[in-house]
Specification:
disordered N terminus
Length: 207
């Protein structure tokens, strides 16, 4: 049980560190909720809200930095979608970070974030209620529900949001969408997942 909670805590700790590091405002809040309506089907919901720069703004602030933006713009140029939406997808790739000009190995947290989410998907026992994650930033919202998986290519985690998991192909428009005229000044990360796995571990270990 401690291993499961420890893994979740470690990843969320990294998310909070990024929220402070990238937003510029250091204004954030985390809220957790346990849905116990059905004692045999418990769910946890966690939301992190940070006010400040959006994902898109952290990259465009460094337009003159080739190490930060060259690969991002190569990806943006491949697809006929708004740059802000594609930038949010790009930001999900391992070693994609607006801080690469400061530390060349930045952007590793995404790997552990994806691994944790897919671990929760794999352990989920309710086929009708997979874990869900939403990332909202600026005018873009990215959705995850286990339909698309990440993969490792050339020692880097890739998450292209399409069936072939190929960054040269456009992401599924159902999973990366525009908020239209609405903008959120910062970022919101929401995740909902079942606690059944933890319950099973408790039973197995007679805790």
């Amino acid at each position: 049980v401690l291993g499961v909670f420890g893994c979740v805590g470690c990843v969320w700790g990294g998310v909070l560190g990024n929220a402070e590091d990238h937003s510029g405002a250091k204004l954030w809040q985390i809220v957790g909720y346990l849905d116990s309506v059905d004692p045999n089907n418990l769910y946890c919901e966690i939301v992190i809200v940070n006010i400040g720069k959006t994902f898109f703004e952290t990259f465009t602030d460094k337009q003159e930095s080739a190490v930060v933006n060259d690969k991002r713009m190569d990806y943006v140029g491949l697809h006929n979608m708004p740059e802000e939406l594609l930038t949010l997808v790009y930001a999900m790739q391992q070693n994609a970070s607006s801080k690469l000009d400061e530390e060349i190995d930045r952007g590793q947290g995404t790997k552990y974030f994806m691994e944790l989410f897919h671990h929760l998907v794999d352990k989920n026992k309710n086929a009708h209620s997979n874990p869900k994650m939403l990332i909202l930033s600026g005018g873009a919202i990215l959705k995850m529900d286990g339909t698309y998986r990440s993969k490792v290519s050339n020692d880097k985690v890739i998450y292209a949001l399409n069936e072939s998991n190929d960054l040269s192909k456009a992401p599924d428009k159902n999973y990366i969408q525009s908020l239209g005229k609405q903008k959120f000044p910062g970022a919101v990360i929401y995740i909902r997942y079942s606690l059944q796995e933890i319950q099973e571990l408790e039973k197995k270990n007679d805790i």
